[in-house]
Backbone:
């Protein structure tokens, strides 16, 4: 049996994500790396470099870019069937918003609308009106009056203005909880930012946040948030929190037997894909 891989959109959870099913690894332990290609850039799926699997596995990719074709490739490095490669059919997840989240806590994902009328968390001017792309250049004055320059590479986006606004106390609390939880975030730009040619997945660092209530003195709930972000390298760790709990499963079934009945005839991979039934 040859190694096979399929990719699908998963429509449950707080934000866009992809599910990747890998089969045909044979009985025994295999070591593999999962790769994702989008915008002609091939990178390993975060946390899935040289991982082990037995016969098959199911992987959730919470970093999947939206509104562009994405291709997944499994590279089997060792195992009962020997080295192998397989590529899934391209997957495009269509979504009408931008998203920001703690990369280790997918439950923290928040939808950011492009315009005020669309929701209670949205970009406001001057968000993303300019992008700074710095280059590494060292200048040296030499004795004959000339200047010598040593040129380095152009760096990714810096000083990105991500000014936002919230119109409700609930959205303000959700955004503040997210911003207080970390200084590193995963940002996925939505279709309203397509003209900026941003990467589909951006890991950003936000050192300073300014919260400005705008109408609280007369009973309003609108708040402006000033954020400036720098693009940083992706972390190597995968998601750290469980996306479902034992309590979630327990709440759905009166007995363990009822849980077994619900999954009768299904495989271990089926259970991984839909742990709550």
Residues:
């Amino acid at each position: 049996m040859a190694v096979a891989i399929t990719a699908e959109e998963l429509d449950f959870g707080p934000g866009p994500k992809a599910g990747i099913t890998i089969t045909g690894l044979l009985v025994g332990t295999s070591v593999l790396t999962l790769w994702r290609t989008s915008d002609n850039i091939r990178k390993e799926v975060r946390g899935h470099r040289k991982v082990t699997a037995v016969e098959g596995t199911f992987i959730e990719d919470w970093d999947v870019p939206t509104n562009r074709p994405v291709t997944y490739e499994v590279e089997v490095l060792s195992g009962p069937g020997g080295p192998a490669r397989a590529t899934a059919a391209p997957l495009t997840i269509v979504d009408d918003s931008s998203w920001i989240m703690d990369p280790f806590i997918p439950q923290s994902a928040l939808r950011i609308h492009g315009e005020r009328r669309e929701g209670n968390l949205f970009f406001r001017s001057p968000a993303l009106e300019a992008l700074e792309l710095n280059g590494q250049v060292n200048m040296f004055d030499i004795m004959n009056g000339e200047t010598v320059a040593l040129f380095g590479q152009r760096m990714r986006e810096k000083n990105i203005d991500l000014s936002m606004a919230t119109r409700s106390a609930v959205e303000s609390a959700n955004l503040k909880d997210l911003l207080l939880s970390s200084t590193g975030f995963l940002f996925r730009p939505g279709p309203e930012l397509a003209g900026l040619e941003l990467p589909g997945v951006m890991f950003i660092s936000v050192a300073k946040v300014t919260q400005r209530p705008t109408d609280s003195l007369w009973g309003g709930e609108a708040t402006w948030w000033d954020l400036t972000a720098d693009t940083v390298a992706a972390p190597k760790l995968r998601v750290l929190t469980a996306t479902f709990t034992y309590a979630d499963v327990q709440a759905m079934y009166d007995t363990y037997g009822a849980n077994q009945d619900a999954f009768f005839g299904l495989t271990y991979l089926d259970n991984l894909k839909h742990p709550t039934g």
In short: The chain has a mean pLDDT of 83. The domain at 4-95 is CATH 2.60.40.10 (Immunoglobulin-like).
